Amino acid sequence: MIDMKFSAFILTTVLVLATAAAASTDREIIVSVDAVPLAWGDSRVAAKLQRYLSRDGNLSVSLAGEDDSGRPAFPADRYNIDSLMNWGREVGGRYLMLVDVTAERLERRKSFHVPLVFHKYQTVGIIEGEFRLLDLTRGRVLTAEPFQMERNGPRIFQGTMDDDINDPDLHLTASRKVVFFDELETGLCRRLAEKVGHLVGRR
User: Fold this and answer.
1) Around Cβ 35, how many Cβ atoms within 10 Å?
2) Fewer beta carbons under 10 A from the terminal one: N or C of the chain?
3) Which CATH class is domain 29-201?
4) Is 131 exposed, middle or buried (0-12, 13-18, 19+ CB in 10 A)?
5) Where are the beta strands (DSSP E) in the chain?
6) Assign residue 163 a region: left if phi > 0, alpha if psi is -120 to 50, beta otherwise?
């Protein structure tokens, strides 16, 4: 009788552990970010995405390229869906999130104008690219869409006679630029993490 109870206990434990492992794999998302080089510092989009996605207790998050020892090489063609699907299945994740940042830049714009009175100029930070989410187990692309986010920087008002878009008051110092774009990337990553939460939360 004791042996039967012990065997039943072992079997139950194994089933629970197997179910937990399957659930963990079922909710694993692998994140791959390809960002343009920046003159003022390194992009932190990948690290920020990992942090915000990890706040969802139901998701296990890893970064492609972070610890690829023993893993197959990530596909050279980020737009070859078959290669991405095969890579993801071999690695063992459920979802693959691809973020391609194609531009991170500053623009100066004339945002307001009253003829013969004054102009308003503003420095604007822009980050844009494409976001894709693949369901590896079902072999489906859940979403593929462009993104663009802007953040307002310094602004000035000038009389009509001045009209100087290169006014030094619109300039961001190197240290301010690092903080400025860090906040811009943070806003983008929050938005993308929320979108992923909605997409995988329904599955």
Assistant:
1) 19
2) N
3) alpha beta
4) buried
5) 28-35, 60-63, 95-114, 118-135, 140-159
6) left
- Give the global pTM: 0.77
Beta-strand pair 60-63/28-35: parallel
- Residue 39 CA to residue 68 CA, distance in Å, equals 28
Amino acid, res. 97? M
**How far is the C-alpha of 36 from the C-alpha of 14, rounded, in Å?**
47
> What is the side-by-side strand order in the sheet with 140-159?
60-63, 28-35, 95-114, 118-135, 140-159
Backbone angles phi, psi at 150, to 5 degrees: -125, 155
192, exposed or middle or buried, with CB in 10 Å at 0-12, 13-18, 19+? buried
pLDDT in tens, 143-198: 999 999 999 987 665 655 555 666 666 677 888 889 999 999 999 999 999 999 99
Distance in angstroms (rounded) separating the CA atoms of residues 176 and 164: 22
SS3 29: strand
Q: Which residue has the tokens 């692998």?
A: 30
Could you say which DSSP state residue 169 is in? G
| Domain locations in the chain as residue ranges | 29-201
Average pLDDT, the chain: 80
